[in-house]
Amino acid sequence: MNKKALTKDLKQVILKIDGGIGKNIMALGVCKAIRNQHPNAKIIVIASWPDVFQKCQHLVDKVLNLGNLNYFYKDYIKGKEDSTLLIVQDPYGVSEFILGTSGHLIKVWCESNGIAYYGELPHYKLTTDEDKKYGQLFTPKDGRPVLLMHTNGGPPPPPNNNGQPTLPSNSWPRDLPISVAQEIVNRFKKDYNIIHLRRPDQMPLQDVIALELKFREIIGLITYSHKRLFIDSMHQHIAAAINKPSVVTWVVNKPAQFGYEIHTNIIANPYTLIPEYKDSIFQEFNTIGGKEEEFPYESESDIFDVDRIEEAIKNCPNEVPIPNK
What we know:
Elements (H helix, E strand, L loop, with lengths): L11 E6 L3 H17 L4 E6 L14 E4 L6 H6 L6 E4 L7 H5 L5 H7 L16 H10 L8 E5 L27 H11 L4 E5 L11 E3 L3 H9 L3 E5 L2 H8 L5 E4 L4 H4 L5 E4 L38 H10 L10
Parallel strand pairs: 1-2, 1-4, 2-3, 5-6, 5-8, 6-7, 8-9, 9-10
Helix pairs in contact: 1-4, 1-8, 5-7
């Protein structure tokens, strides 16, 4: 534990975040915990995805791009050593997180740095202008409700040897099998406008509206959707942060570490083959990519029960009541 976090005279806390968008969103919960414990300290965030912190001035005083830190030591550390708390260790490398013994990543992130954690979670709110804009943009003209789906995560794959984009593919440890996703579309397409959030390099679905949006636009779309089916990705973090219960599917990652109680979390079926752990070190499988020889199922149809996902979508509320709202 960082003993400096227990002092009351901190002038600033510097939080460094690398990794994906979802990790940056979870860092908002860390910022909230820091603010609660040190209300007078200036919170400076060094982010790999600065857009995540747009319109979060109540939590963060300064946001810097991880890729552009010229003169950082001179401007933010020199002469301020005694009153500064640095939170720069990657929480993925903390023993309690690797072993899965201390719960959610946000909790581990806080407590491993001496920050008291009382269940703080990320939170977003649209501005009045955004609410009006996205309400008009994302309300279907035909009156049918929106089922929003996101089925593939992770960074774009590198180009192939010819410099051409890699063909779309699934990462089995994380993504929703494309056959399962398409079957869900087939069951709901009559009654819903189905929007599929995807990049061009990700697997397409038939009979959907495919969209690639900016970060605040995604917040708006989730706000005005009626049902949501996500994998463990930025979208399930955003949905939790705006009080939108969603159905979230999990293959390798665990909702206890990355998920939220507001969601209906569907964990993959037990393995039907003995896993190949030859290349596994500190985690069971690498969720980015996923090696074919490690695949612990006889086929992708064994991973999830489509009927269970369908029922969960039907029963999932659009939002949950907030006490004293």
